[in-house]
Amino acid sequence: MKDSIHVIFGFDMETDVGSFTPYYDGVKNATGPLIEVFERKNIKGTFFYTGDAARRNPDSVALVRDSGNEVGTHSLFHETVGDQLFPIPGVVPLLAEEVPFRIRKATEWVQEVLGSQPVSFRCPRLWSSTAVVNALEELNYAVDASYPMYFYRERLVPYHPSREDWTQEGDLNILQIPNFADMTMKSKDPGLERDRDQWPLFRTKGADALMQRVHSFIRFMREKDLPVVLCFYFHPWEFIPIHKSYKYGECTVTPDRFITLNCGDKAMEEFGLLIDRLKDLGAEFHRADDFAVKWHRYTTAQSRT
Q: Which residues form the NodB homology domain (predicted)?
């Protein structure tokens, strides 16, 4: 386990451009091409659906399931279920007491379409919380792939969180998988340090630019004699043409340019290149649920030595 490079590709199946539009063109039109890439490259991954995305796009869910990839959950309506890391106009975090109901309802909606209970979860924007993790534990989730390494910067490998503080190690059964970031660079973003993050570098600057971050992370982890786990997050809307602005209701939404830059064919091209570059390193690709089983076997064996 420690000698290998482990890759988890996660796709957050949500409305186009996150919470900024009500459309599902990405889920409708990019699921098939992405699955084709997965099959051509002989890899597997996890597709995290909001409850609403699953209900409105059952064909997408079936395609993921029937291709042998994992269907997970991504909240109910791409709401902020966890602790807010930075403010977004009009997006108000759920109260802690609301979280268990919303996650349970999201799970029910995905399960209705999937035909079985999902066991992997990711919070929108990687904004999780202690309330979220405890709610997932109660619902017997195996994985939460929400920890933003760029922000908390403490957990470098998967861990079992504490029921009192989800960012600390504890004795919960659920496995928290951090989303990797470049921990060697000097950040120019004091406080948030989002420039350490891997998203959306693969399409804004290209796969090779992202691989520079990957190589830095690998060296960093091996110097510490730690397993290398690269958890990525992507979105289906990144793989279709995206407008610079969207008008609906009583307003026009114009996302920051990095959010829409090079979406569509360029993103798909760079994504394929990223897979090839990771394969050149001998990386192993996992579904989140399968990785949790593998990690449990590894940590159990380590505890015996």
A: 15-229
- Give the domain 5-304 fold: TIM Barrel (3.20.20)
Mapped onto helix, strand or coil, the DSSP state of residue 70 is strand
Would you say residue 50 has pLDDT above 70?
yes
The predicted structure's pLDDT at residue 102? 97
| Residue 303 structure tokens | 């505890």
Query: What pLDDT, on a 0 to 100 scale, did the predictor assign at position 305?
Result: 67
Per DSSP, 88 falls in state: B
Determine the Cα–Cα distance for residues 218 and 91; give it in Å rounded to an integer. 36
Residue closest to 74 by CA, chosen among 38, 32, 24, 39? 24
Comparing C-alpha atoms, which of 131, 139, 129 is closest to residue 51?
A: 139
Q: What's the chain's length in residues?
A: 305
Task: Give the span between the Cα atoms of 37 and 32, in whole angstroms.
Answer: 9
Given a cut of 70, whether residue 100 has pLDDT beyond it is: yes
Residue with tokens 């114009």: 254
**Pairwise CA distance, residues 232 & 91, whole Å:** 24
Interval 37-45 mean pLDDT:
98
Asked whether 174 and 141 are in contact (CB, 8 A), the reply is: yes
DSSP symbols for 129-187: -HHHHHHHHHTT-SEE---BHHHH----S-BPBPSS-TTSB---SSEE-PBPB-SSS--
Task: Domain ranges for the chain, please list them.
Answer: 5-304
Torsion of CA 146, 127, 105, 93, to 10 degrees: 180
* pTM value > 0.85: yes
DSSP bridge pairs for 144: 121, 176
